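Lay summary. Proteins are chains of building blocks that fold into shapes, and those shapes determine what they do. In this project we predict the shape from the chain. Here is one chain we studied, written as its sequence of building blocks.
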Amino acid sequence: MAKTNSSATEAAFFNVAQAKWVIGVLGMLIAVVGKDSLLGLVLRQTRYEINSLIQDDRPSTVVERAVRYKDN
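And here is the predicted shape, written in a compact code that computers can read:
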């Protein structure tokens, strides 16, 4: 059976603010383990996948502080 209203299901499942927070946390973890390590590679790929799911909204102050680790 096909879903008729997938946006309502996605809205309940996916929280954009939390996803942005996770991106920041992943960036900090990448800074700790090193971006060239195997774990760093996995964390960077995870961060990239989560980032591809969200739209670029205005970040909160917590996210703004965490974003400084985004490009590690």
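What the prediction tells us: The radius of gyration is 14 Å.
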